[in-house]
Here is the input.
Amino acid sequence: MAEVYVLRRMRANILKDEVTHILDHARDASSPFALLVLIDDIQRLGLGYIFEKKIRIALGFLIEKNLKMEESLETTTLYFRLLRQHGFKVSQDVFSIFRDRQNSFKESLGQDVKGMVRLFEASYLGLEGEDILDEANAFARRHLLDVKGNADLAELVTHALDLPLHHRITRLEARWYIDAYSRRKDVNSTLLELAKLDYNMIQATYQKDLMETSRWWKKLDIVMNLPFSRDRLAESFLWSVGMTDEPQYSYCRQVITKVIALVTIIDDVYDVYATYDEAKLFTDAVERWDINAVEQLPDYMKLCFFALYNTVNEFAYNALRSMGLISFHT
Here is the structure.
């Protein structure tokens, strides 16, 4: 197993170098649209964290060189969304060229289905008071609902309408996009291979994270002793992946998972089982963070308090140790 991992890692490193070259070449080419599409593909394939610096440099290059954007809906919407996603300032006025004399979006744009999808995705990155983007959202949604029955684009349109792009969990989006990207005529085999390889390696990391957290959960034995409570460890872990999906954040995912799992148990204690007086005692014990306060608690609450107390103190110890505030030298 270790040998397979090493071989995968070596292959991934080779592919990363090749994709870096592809990205550099696209940046130096004269087509902003090709560069924007490549960046979007990299991000949606789940590879954005690998090429984050390169992507920011490429986007900064577009701004610095003030390259003339093609007056196409796809190019403009991609330009707007990607820049805003990466914290660059870009005005909603870039969409003015697509509006008529009545300041409404031109109805002819509705024939460009891919452009409508990209406009719909970009519209969710509007700021308060940006009326053009509010109008863009309603306009794009109306036209996308009209073309939803188009067999060739049905999956793309349905996916866009189901949930805004930036609300999706990166790893789940990557899984869907890998399949969708593999069916495209302009698929880049190097990029696709790296995406599949990276997805599988990160999946293995997640499995290891969940396995370690499961051992902690079983050791607590809290669900067996509190049969009224919910056993939601796997769901809690999925939340953690949604918050910190990059492979290097294993410890962070484990911390988030433990916190959510414990909060779920304590929520059930308050809502399902505890009396008002018991809930007050437990709240007081937590607020005081005093181990001696457990003497006043019923047995089932003692179990909850000890689980919370020991877990949180372990977090604090690990944090202090990582910052060098705890020394093992005398």
